[in-house]
Amino acid sequence: MEHYGAKKNKQITTALLLAAGSxxxxxxxxxxxxxxxxxxxxxxxxxxxxxCLCQQGFTxxxxxxxxxxxxIREFLGEQRGSLSIEYxxxxxxxxxxxxxxxxxAREIVQEPFLLLESDLLxxxxxxxxxxxxxxxxxxxxxxxMNGSTVTIDELxxxxxxxxxxxxDADELHFKTVNICSLSLRSWQQVIIRLEQYIDSGQVNEYYxxxxxxxxxxxxxxxxxxxxxPGSWYExxxxxxxxxxxxxxxxxGTEQASPA
Length: 259
Hints:
This protein is of the alpha/beta class. It contains 6 helices and 14 strands.
């Protein structure tokens, strides 16, 4: 997918990873370890994510932790390859959604950054186009997908979010991949809106609801970056994990997209 009218900015090298949740739909595997340490073909999801960031030249990783946070700290430490690693604790991870985890990082992250969630697998090269600010990863709708979707226009600009809905696929309607980049200006505007949600007690929303409101009123814009089916996977359930494990060779290379 080409980018139209995009200004060249300094490449983003900071990533914010949301990893506070308990991963209830992956139980019993997550009874004694965080979701992101679940193994795919013998390699933890988190290790694959960190390797992708290192391959793309990221130098700072901030991880929002909560459930069994010590496991993640012990696994990652404070340095992995090129990555300096810092942690933010979401102490209310049991009673809040990812909006609270994102809000928890408002002080420690004060630069453009890549936002991603900790249950994703993807080809590292896909991050290249997301290392420019205010872009969002999307993918053509497939029958097995669920969750947030977006509508884009002919210039690949996001025009509308649909939260928790699945609609019939068309050429301008796509699934979100839960990876996006934010400029500092956009992040500062998002923080203001996050504060409003948190102050009003809306702590069980998805942060995509904030993005949806802001896109609708014109205070936030995203340029879409296409992830082709089979180049990424989201692992929410034991069934997802079973499918993904069947797609990997012993050396960890993907073969096909989920059916």
